[in-house]
Amino acid sequence: MRKFDSTKPLFICDLANNHFGDIEHAKRIIDELGIVAEETNEQISIKFQFRNLVNYIHKDFKNRRDIKYIDRFLSTELRKEDFHELANYIKGRNMVTMATPFDEDGVGWCRDLGIEVIKIASASSNDYPLIDCVAEAGKPVVASTAGLRIEEIDNLVFRLYGKVPNLTIMHCVAIYPCDEKDLNLHQINLLRRRYPRIGIGFSTHERADSLLPVAMATALGAVALERHVGV
CATH number, domain at 164? Predict the structure, then answer.
């Protein structure tokens, strides 16, 4: 079983809701990525997203399946037991487990399931109660920064640096998909200069057939790359 190694580049494969609520389809995605991990010997993590939908969706909107985001979350929901099975499956394919908790319950799931690395989403990067809860979990942390002002990134780093075993900050543009002209890759240079003691990565939302931005981000010094995955 491969353990997370902070000295090596990290490829973050975000499973998100692309399992469609089907654990066997999730395993198919894991198997495909497992082949890549075996052939390349790169450090690949597969990332879950944890939401306690009982609390996450407002009670007045529980039945609003006409709202696409609510329908997507409810129609693709997996149980904690399912994620436990999938986490063990990932470890069996020699890859790293990772998860994005969107609430404090999700941080508890990270602990309970032995998730190795916790990801903080851009949307949660100024949710200070959640960030403090993540810090208390004592696991390596990767945090995205789309939409944050530089002083908000400073606050994020201040709350995590020295309190977690390893910290990586991800440059990210919250446009899905993102045109190459809007990627603003020079932000990687800015973040590397401003935070020289932590890793800087690139959470990428460009088109699936666009390969140059990843090469450019790597040339700029990105040590972690994140992309949504599916088959």
Answer: 3.20.20.70
